[in-house]
Amino acid sequence: xxxxxxxxxxxxxxxxxxxxxxxxxxxxxxxxxxxxxxxxxxxxxxxxxxxxxxxxxxxxxxxxxxxxxxxxxxxxxxx
Length: 79
Known about the structure:
Glutaredoxin, 79 residues, 22% strand, Thiol-disulfide isomerase, single chain, alpha+beta, isomerase, Thioredoxin-like_sf, 3 helices
């Protein structure tokens, strides 16, 4: 199971930037699950104006905008 989920949507340049930041910091690509919010009505309602959002397997969330530093801290706190 993925340790972290990145909520995004296709064509979102901020989401692409977020994924690049995250992938540079995690150990294994399989630890990140990318979920397109357009695949689920509930996700659209919850995240439509806040993507990209990084979520831990425990439910903590990091909302955009974030930096390499803030992602590193989030990953360390949620491991």
